[in-house]
Amino acid sequence: MRIADDKDSKEISTAGKSAGSLIRTHQNLMKKLIVTPTRIAQELHMSFPTVQSALQRLVQLGIVREITGRKRNKMYAYEKALAVLERGVGTNLLF
């Protein structure tokens, strides 16, 4: 499943020098829907701190949600994809 959102892309593209890592992280999220920073870092050959920073920025933009509530071993979900799936099944998929 791939859900493109021009609004997300526009917000990300204005992120200055961090836009590249945000774009790559966002594209990975659109393919996977739920990810861990470790997995993204491995798949995209990016450093763990870079991925963490990108995910935090995407959370601030409202594009991604941290779904575990933990300090370690966090997981992140792509909000728009979850919303589409939840509408289809009529329930919250995560809780």
Please give the number of β-strands. Answer: 3
> What CATH architecture would you give?
Orthogonal Bundle
Number of continuous helical runs: 5
Strand content: 5-15%
Class derived from helix and strand content: mainly alpha
The main sheet orders its strands as 1-3-2
Short overview:
By secondary structure, this protein is mostly helical. It has helices spanning 6-13, 19-32, 37-44, 48-60, 79-89; strands spanning 34-35, 64-66, 76-78.
Explain this structure:
Strands 1-3-2 form a three-stranded antiparallel sheet. With 95 residues, the chain is mainly alpha-helical. The protein is globular, with a radius of gyration of 13 Å. It contains five helices and three strands; from the N terminus they run H-H-E-H-H-E-E-H. It has one domain: Arc Repressor Mutant, subunit A (Orthogonal Bundle), CATH 1.10.10.10.
Topology:
Elements: H1 6-13, H2 19-32, E1 34-35, H3 37-44, H4 48-60, E2 64-66, E3 76-78, H5 79-89
Helix pairs in contact: 2-4, 3-4
Give me some keywords for this one:
95 residues, mainly alpha, Arc Repressor Mutant, subunit A, three-stranded antiparallel beta sheet, 8% strand
